Amino acid sequence: MSDGIAVLVPGGAGQLGRELAALAGDGVLVRAPGCATLDLTQAGAVVEAVTALVDEARAAGLAPVVVNAAAYTAVDDAETHRARAFAVNADGPRVLAAACSSRGVPLIHVSTDYVFPGDGTRPYEVDDPVGPRSVYGQTKLAGEEAVLGSGARAWVVRTAWVYGAFGRNFVRTMIRLAGSDDPVSVVDDQRGSPTWTADLARGLLELARRVSTGAAPDTRLLHCTGTGETTWYGLARAVFEELGADPSRVRPCTTDEFPRPAPRPAYSVLSNKTWQAAGLTPLPDWRSALATAFPSLV
Ligand SMILES: NC(=O)c1ccc[n+]([C@@H]2O[C@H](COP(=O)([O-])OP(=O)(O)OC[C@H]3O[C@@H](n4cnc5c(N)ncnc54)[C@H](OP(=O)(O)O)[C@@H]3O)[C@@H](O)[C@H]2O)c1
To answer: If I label 101, which of 13, 63, 122, 184 is the partner at 20 to 30 A Cα–Cα?
Structure first.
């Protein structure tokens, strides 16, 4: 077998999934089915997909690995569509992990800062107490527990504030709003680490190679975000700067001024210490990542 890997990416049509698919090549074969082709709530389809991955990898002399980018990510809708959110974010990963376990395929599962209560004052370590305040966060925590308790060789990677060229995200919304002359009010009392999908996808593939070559991190729970931190207001200003628009058009406001169905964590910064201790490459500083990403976003 070569050092190459064959990666199955459930959620292949999402913003992270499409970025992972774009990294195919150079010893990396990627199969990234969208929800219509591989629905994690359909156990039979999950088992078939993992089996097909193993067969294809074996034929190509590659090591099979699953990177789960599928999720129910509509944070506000999850408050009222609880059962569906649990089915996708908890039951789906449980079935996926069982299929991986029975075929001996390592699994990397993506999770979120929303598992934390968000009242911290320093970056959250992987073993800090969790306490999700939203249904979405509860479902993602249940997914983590299902994966880590499955008996599969599995790693959970929590990330945060994800944006990229594909799909809907905060940065693309700000780019759109900058196009009008109106001022834009953005919350300045939530802190986090913006994470570019391309950086995250490269990090996940680095981890995938590591777990496939016997150099897997001992720690099964990792954090992987852009380096540094800001507020949504700070990120919005940076977007305006990149566009050459006047950043003073972005006005700071408070979370209370924008009530949403699901509570947002005020403090979402994740410590990437465990990621670095495992010898994995730290993601670039969020501000320089935004500058690098920008041509692909506009
Ligand atoms: N976006 C963020 O800011 C953020 C922050 C922290 C962590 N994360 C985590 O990062 C991962 C990737 O998120 P993302 O931003 O790429 O989200 P995304 O763009 O919403 O992608 C998720 C994908 O999962 C698919 N999906 C939904 N239900 C499914 C099912 N039953 N079976 C298979 N696929 C299903 C969705 O398809 P449909 O669109 O057709 O439903 C969508 O294409 C998720 O685990 C998320 O929780 C994201």
So the answer is: 13
Structure tokens at 206: 């680095």
| Residue located nearest, by CA, to atom 38 of ligand 1 | 35
Q: Count other C-beta atoms under 10 Å from residue 74's C-beta.
A: 14
How many helices (H) and strands (E) would you count in the chain? 11, 12
pLDDT tens for 218-229 read 999 999 999 999
Q: What is the DSSP string of 226-248?
A: -BS-EEHHHHHHHHHHHHT--GG
Task: Answer whether 0.85 is exceeded by the pTM.
Answer: yes
* % pLDDT > 90, the chain: 96
Phi, psi of 34, deg, nearest 5: -75, 175
**Residue from 35, 147, 222 to probe ligand 1 pocket by mutation (most atoms less than 8 Å from CB):** 35
Domain assignments of the chain as residue spans, ordered by start: 5-169+195-227+268-284
The residue whose two tokens read 């974010």 is 89
